[in-house]
């Protein structure tokens, strides 16, 4: 038997035999649903034989036969009714298990999210791509027409999406482009570190989305439920269908706060904060100002995360503020990093270590935050040192800055566009999808091995634009991405270590060393971060003005 659990109460499997009923009972099942019509295969036991064997062992059985490939809405309703009437757990079977998984998906479409259904069936080895529109439509068969069709559809109106739209418009103004995003507000997220350090005001990092969508680009204010790349379609919540000639996928990533037990309940109070949220970054600065003694923990989860330097930026700016006030000697700074190094590009580590020493911070590697009790001011970390059993330790704190675990959005992870880890699967040079050649991706959601930063998206947007337009014109990709990313590490108020690097940790400085030496703290780099980068973001990057972002041409073999 090959039994696959969809939920705690429902499992599916290929054809079973009367002889296997005892094992099925031993597994704990109390009922069986047969979704395979009698006589479909020459060696197939009849439902009557299976039912009789089940009855002898006290299991209930129900017959809901489905012709392969023909699951009707009524069939799904009958399956749902059977699940509600039969004692659980229930095992449903057909020839391969696919019809049973399909019936469950449609039956539960009005109570479970699309992502949860697709994740459960995918984990069990069943692809529900063929019925995704019906799942989105609450399990009912929708009309097959498209509600709208565009030359280019862009999923996500963050830094990557708006920059890509603007870059396309600047090259080919007649393109019919739509951006799909449900958000009302667009945030300049790189500014939140500065908010948490008392340098920026939070409202200065936010603008209305409508004010930033490029002129002539259609804004579809809706959430994406699923993709049908084989049909060039994006399915929105409510089962609206948007078709495209070419697709750009850049919805960012998901901050998985719930992965840390107790974290959601205590965020924004009990001394627990995070610069990864607009509403919490001001609380970081409030805590720093109030703190005169005690322990401050700064956490960093396993990679990948966006702006991998942000967790330690918070530590440095906090340490600097305490140093300036003369209270640093009474504050115990702990940097708990799930990884094994302070920073992934070794050239920048010596300068950073000097600031770790200045602030007398303890570096605790392989420490991953797993639980928080805010009221008790306690946190628990799993310590996973190489070739050593995992040990869970408890630490008390007075203030804790948390960087949350991060994953691809649910609707991406369960889509045909994702790799095994859930990220959009692209060629790391051209940013074109490896399977669907009319799909591109950029920003935090794709799987190229680069740093997930706004600076990376700034470089990627014109590359995607160049390659997409080359494809429209029947040409091969003309631009390639070298993995560029930038992380301005705010080591103290007024000085920054400007880390710029590409694939493999190769240093890719934008400025001559005489102006900014990225391996050393610099006032010029601070001026760039504080005064220049915000207007460059709002007025250049998001408007298709590609300052210092000229695409690198593909090198001929």
UniProtKB/TrEMBL annotation:
Gene Ontology BP annotations: sulfide oxidation, using sulfide:quinone oxidoreductase
Gene3D superfamilies: FAD/NAD(P)-binding domain (3.50.50.60), Protein tyrosine phosphatase superfamily (3.90.190.10)
Protein name: Sulfide:quinone oxidoreductase
Organism: Litoreibacter ascidiaceicola
Annotated Beta-lactamase hydrolase-like protein phosphatase-like domain residues: 2-109
Any Pfam family hit: Pyr_redox_2
Cofactor: FAD
Residue intervals passing through the bilayer: none
Keywords, ordered alphabetically: FAD, Flavoprotein, Oxidoreductase, Quinone, Transit peptide
One function term, GO molecular function aspect: FAD binding
Family matches, as InterPro entries: BLH_phosphatase-like, FAD/NAD-bd_sf, FAD/NAD-binding_dom, Prot-tyrosine_phosphatase-like, Sulphide_quinone_reductase
Highest taxon in the source lineage: Bacteria
PANTHER family: SULFIDE:QUINONE OXIDOREDUCTASE, SULFIDE:QUINONE OXIDOREDUCTASE, MITOCHONDRIAL
Record domain FAD/NAD(P)-binding: where: 150-263
């Amino acid at each position: 038997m090959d039994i696959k659990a969809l939920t705690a109460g429902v499992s599916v499997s290929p054809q079973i035999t009367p002889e296997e009923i005892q094992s099925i009972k031993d597994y704990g099942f109390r009922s069986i649903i047969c979704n395979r019509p009698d006589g479909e295969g020459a060696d197939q036991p009849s439902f009557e034989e299976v039912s009789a064997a089940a009855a002898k062992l006290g299991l209930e059985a129900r017959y809901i036969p489905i012709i392969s490939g023909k699951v009707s809405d009524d069939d799904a309703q009958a399956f749902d009714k059977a699940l509600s009437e039969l004692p659980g757990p229930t095992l449903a079977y057909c020839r391969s298990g696919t019809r049973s998984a399909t019936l469950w998906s449609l039956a539960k479409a009005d109570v479970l999210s699309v992502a949860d259904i697709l994740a459960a069936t995918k984990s069990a080895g069943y692809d529900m791509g063929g019925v995704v529109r019906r799942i989105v439509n609450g399990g009912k068969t929708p009309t097959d027409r498209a509600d709208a069709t565009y030359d280019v559809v862009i999923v996500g109106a963050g830094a990557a999406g708006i920059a890509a739209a603007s870059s396309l418009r600047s090259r080919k103004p007649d393109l019919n482009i739509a951006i799909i995003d449900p958000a009302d507000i667009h945030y300049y997220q790189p500014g939140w570190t500065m908010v948490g350090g008392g340098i920026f005001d939070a409202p200065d990092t936010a603008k209305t989305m409508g004010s930033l969508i490029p002129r002539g680009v259609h804004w579809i204010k809706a959430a994406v439920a699923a993709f049908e790349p084989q049909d060039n379609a994006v399915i929105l919540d409510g089962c609206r269908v948007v078709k495209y000639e070419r697709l750009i996928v850049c919805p960012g990533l998901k901050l998985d706060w719930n992965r840390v037990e107790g974290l959601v309940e205590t965020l924004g109070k009990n001394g627990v904060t995070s610069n990864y949220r607009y509403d919490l970054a001001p609380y970081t600065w409030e805590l720093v100002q109030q703190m005169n003694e005690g322990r401050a923990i700064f956490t960093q989860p396993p990679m990948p995360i966006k702006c991998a330097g942000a967790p330690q930026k918070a530590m440095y700016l906090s340490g600097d503020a305490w140093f300036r006030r003369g209270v640093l000697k009474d504050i115990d700074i702990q940097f708990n990093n799930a990884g094994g190094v302070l920073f992934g590009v070794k050239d920048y580590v010596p300068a950073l270590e000097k600031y770790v020493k200045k602030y007398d911070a303890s570096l605790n590697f392989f420490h991953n935050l797993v639980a928080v009790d805010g009221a008790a001011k306690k946190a628990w970390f799993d310590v996973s040192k190489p070739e050593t059993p995992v040990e869970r330790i408890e630490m008390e704190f007075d203030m804790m800055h948390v960087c949350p675990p991060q994953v691809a959005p649910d609707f991406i992870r369960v889509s045909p566009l994702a790799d095994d880890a859930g990220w959009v699967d692209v060629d790391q040079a051209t940013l074109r999808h490896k399977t669907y050649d009319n799909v591109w991706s950029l920003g935090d959601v794709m799987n190229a091995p680069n740093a997930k930063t706004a600076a990376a998206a700034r470089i990627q947007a014109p590359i995607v634009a160049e390659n997409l337009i080359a494809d429209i014109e029947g040409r091969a990709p003309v631009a390639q991405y070298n993995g560029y990313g930038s992380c301005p590490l705010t080591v103290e108020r007024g000085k920054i270590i400007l880390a710029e690097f590409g694939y493999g940790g190769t240093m890719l400085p934008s400025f001559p060393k005489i102006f900014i030496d990225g391996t050393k703290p610099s006032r010029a780099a601070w001026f760039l971060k504080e005064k220049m980068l915000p207007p460059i973001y709002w007025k250049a990057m998001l408007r298709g003005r590609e300052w210092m972002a000229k695409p690198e041409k593909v090198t001929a073999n």
